[in-house]
Design goal:
There is one protein chain. The protein is α/β, with parallel strands linked by helices and 393 residues long. Helices cover 35% and strands 19% of the residues. The chain has 2 domains: 6-282, Carbamate kinase (3-Layer(aba) Sandwich); 291-382, Archaeosine Trna-guanine Transglycosylase, Chain: A, domain 4 (Roll). The chain contains 14 helices and 15 strands. Strands 5-6-4-1-7-9-10-8 form an 8-stranded mixed β-sheet, sandwiched between helices. Strands 12-11-13-14-15 form a 5-stranded mixed β-sheet, with helices on both faces. The chain has a two-stranded antiparallel ribbon with strand order 2-3.
Length: 393
């Protein structure tokens, strides 16, 4: 039974498995670790476990903690080398802190450090899924962070909002809660007069993206509202609800859900409702953050994709990037908006040679019988559109 309102976040029937993302600014203040606040949050996690809910934590803060201990300026983000060094020091302190506070409630913490490749590569993604499942079944609380000490700018998530959504996807979670420094999504910049909190979003559209601000009020984290909307897109494709709520208050989950245990009325936050649930493989493909290339299509092909058709060479107007057969590619319409992700049946050079050709013309170019499509609909997932596919991986 999917989540339809914020109060259901604390109901094990609607949310048996939660992913909770904690931002850097919530964990580390000007005076150091906000230990009292974190102890209150851990108490809420313990209460969720008593209710029968499983909880996964995606925790920022390693770079901020390490930078403070090493005396690095700019919060450890002055350079990639500074960030990697700060993360190596801070991750020890961060994992120890979570282990200690969870242990006070009789809970066992399990540390997992992930890189982008761990969730972009299908086999490694399934390994993450298996590990998370076993840890939860054993009663542990996984505490996850990006492996910033080895990740480079080219192969990193760049923020833990999207990491949390990908982890939720891998763990087959019911909901993701992004604890931030703001109550939720506003219809315009929250500093503007008459800015209004948006309580529910049914699908992340271009209009919703237009509401986002790239700013992060704290200046400590690497995300912002843009990254949170990208996380919501990943979650909604996997049939997972996502909530943005303010973590700066004591017992933030109770405030978001509405009073104590969701019994005090509706809470404060923005709930992003999933618009459908793709099969596991399609959800993984649609949530990828790194693509090998881009296929540009005309208006006719864009309309056909929207009707559930495969992508044929006739509708392709251009090819960008270098990719091989089976690599993930984006498909963009005439306005440049990405319509879909898919696995290409041809390499980049072959795609370029086939642009605009009917099936009857392709064998002469290829030197062999053409495949049924450049991207078959079974290997394609639309972005920003309802998902009807229910087929498991």
């Amino acid at each position: 039974m999917p989540i339809a309102r914020l109060s259901e976040l604390v109901d094990k029937t609607h949310a048996p498995r939660l992913v909770l993302k904690v931002g850097s600014a919530l964990l580390v203040g000007a005076a150091g670790v906000r230990r009292e606040w974190l102890a209150g949050l851990v108490a809420e996690i313990a209460s969720a476990r008593v209710r029968g809910q499983q909880v996964i934590v995606v925790s920022s803060g390693a770079i901020a903690l390490g930078a403070a201990r090493l005396g690095l300026d700019k919060g450890g983000r002055g350079s990639l080398a500074d960030a990697q060094a700060a993360a190596a020091v801070g991750q020890i302190a961060l994992s120890g802190l979570w282990a200690e506070l969870l242990g006070d409630h009789g809970l066992t913490a399990a540390q997992m450090l992930l890189t982008l490749e761990d969730l972009e590569d299908r086999r490694r993604y399934l390994n993450v899924t298996a590990t998370l499942g076993r840890l939860l079944d054993a009663g542990a609380v996984p505490v996850i962070n990006e492996n910033d000490s080895v990740a480079t700018q080219e192969i990193r998530f760049g923020d833990n909002d999207r990491l949390a959504a990908r982890v939720a996807q891998a763990a087959q979670a019911s909901a993701v809660v992004l604890l931030s420094d703001i109550d939720g999504l506003y219809d315009r910049h929250p500093r503007e007069p008459d800015a209004a909190l948006v309580p529910v979003v049914r699908g992340v559209t271009r209009q919703v993206h237009a509401m986002a601000s790239v700013e992060s009020n704290s200046g400590m984290g690497s995300g912002g509202m843009v990254s949170k909307l990208q996380a919501a897109e990943i979650a909604e494709l996997a049939g997972i609800a996502l909530v943005i709520g303010n973590g700066q208050h004591d017992r933030p989950l109770a405030r978001i859900a509405g009073g104590q245990g969701g019994q005090g009325g509706e809470g404060i936050g923005t709930l992003f409702l999933p618009r459908g649930r793709a099969g596991a493989r399609k959800a993984w493909l649609g949530g990828r953050l790194r693509l090998k290339g881009m296929l540009l299509v005309d208006a006719g092909a864009a309309a056909a994709l929207g009707r559930g058709s495969s992508l044929l060479a006739k509708g392709i107007s251009g090819v960008e990037g270098v990719f091989e057969r089976g690599d993930p590619v984006g498909i963009a319409g005439p306005d440049g908006h990405v319509l879909a992700h898919g696995l290409s049946e041809y390499d980049a050079a072959e795609c370029a040679a086939l642009c605009g050709l009917h099936t009857s013309e392709q064998a002469a170019v290829l030197g062999y019988a053409p495949r049924s499509a450049v991207v078959h609909r079974d290997q394609l997932v639309l972005k920003g559109a309802p998902v009807a596919d229910q087929t498991p991986a």
